[in-house]
Specification:
The protein is mainly β and 196 residues long. It contains 3 helices and 11 strands. Strands 1, 2, 3, 4, 5, 6, 7, 8, 9, 10 and 11 form an 11-stranded antiparallel beta sheet that branches.
């Protein structure tokens, strides 16, 4: 399972955020959400998963360029370390999004992925590569559908592979996959969200 940007809200929603596009973490989940923010926004999270020393760090920043365009950058690091073993996985993601219509936006992101493993001071793996994501978001502005949002993200468009410096071999670490999401804001304090 690929690492994921787990903010408190993302965890609370069970990862069903593809159709939301309303906070800085959208640059990771659905790049088409960044132009909808219309403001600068920062997001940070840190977790020691299960209390086992499996650390997850995430930071994201979204910056609107024009009324209908925005960029975002985020950083995700998952790591484990003890006296013998160091395992680090990192993703740096750059996002561009544009609102093509008041109800429809499109976004694309490119990411640098790196993975390193060190055992007793010996580097066993030092691999890196690139991947790309494409996102769509539809938020109708006509009643009674104005509380509904639909999102689609094609992650790792052609698969994401890394090349290991030690062996020069290439390995696909993330296969292409499609996420569809729907969200319905039934009340200002009640949100229904679903991802497939």
């Amino acid at each position: 399972r690929p690492p994921a940007a787990l903010t408190a809200r993302t965890i609370a929603l069970g990862g069903s955020v593809t159709a939301l596009g309303d906070d800085a973490a959208t640059s990771f989940w659905n790049p088409s959400g960044v132009p909808l923010l219309q403001r600068q926004e920062l997001a940070f999270s840190y977790a020691d998963r299960y209390g086992l020393g499996i650390n997850s760090n995430y930071a994201s920043y979204v910056f609107p360029l024009f009324e209908r365009q925005a960029i975002g950058i985020d950083y995700l690091r998952e790591s484990f370390g003890d006296d013998e073993l160091e395992d680090n996985f990192q993703i740096i993601n750059a996002t561009y999004g544009i609102r093509l219509h008041r109800s429809f936006s499109l976004g694309v992101s490119g990411k640098l992925v790196s993975h390193s493993i060190e055992l007793d001071g010996t580097k066993l793996r030092n691999a890196s590569g690139f991947g790309y994501n494409l996102g769509l978001l539809y938020a109708p502005k006509i009643k009674p559908f104005d509380k509904l949002k639909l999102g689609l993200t094609l992650r790792d468009i052609s698969g994401t592979s890394v090349r290991d410096d030690n062996s020069q071999s290439e390995e696909e670490i993330f296969e292409q996959h499609l996420r569809f999401g729907a969200a319905y804001q039934a009340h200002k304090n009640l949100l229904f969200s679903l991802d497939v």
